[in-house]
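Chain A, query sequence.
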Amino acid sequence: MDFPLPSKELMGRVRHAIASLGASTRAVTAGTCVEIAPPKDETRFWSPHLSVQVSDLPESGHDHVSSALVSSEDSLAGRSQLFGRFSPRPEIWTFCMFLYFALGLLFCGGLLVVYVQWSLGRAISAVWALPIAILGILGLHIASWIGQGLSKHQMIELREQLDQILELAVPSSPTGERPGLSSEVQTSTMQAEMTR
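Chain A, predicted structure.
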């Protein structure tokens, strides 16, 4: 989302909005970043977090700003862009990448040993490593799909928390547009909120 404010001013307003929400939010800020996580009692292994970066737009980037948000005074002011990404918690992401790497290494090592045994005309005994590695990688991939499905409601809640923060920070913010969420993905709660 684009805003007709410089990133420093936007982040100041966001920090003030988070402080005004108090204990009802799990958002923290550092520099031009905002991290929003689900409540601790609802956090599971597959729970996501929302990482938001705010950066200044170059002067030529003002074409992307909604005309409803830009006034003649704002045309000379700085603009910023908010970019958010849902992802697993960093420790889970690191663990999964380690498993992918270990299984990939097992596959490559097994393939190498199988080739050497075959080229020397010996009995192929390391072939068991190949299906184990492939099944492990497929298992991790399927587990990530299942985790995304189980955490979909938490992603929606995190997005709603971000919208609440932005509405307090910049009352004329474009939260009704909800970039990246098509109408078939939006829940009835989201659609009701947008029609208000």
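The radius of gyration is 23 Å. Confidence is low (pLDDT under 50) at residues 61-76, 187-196.
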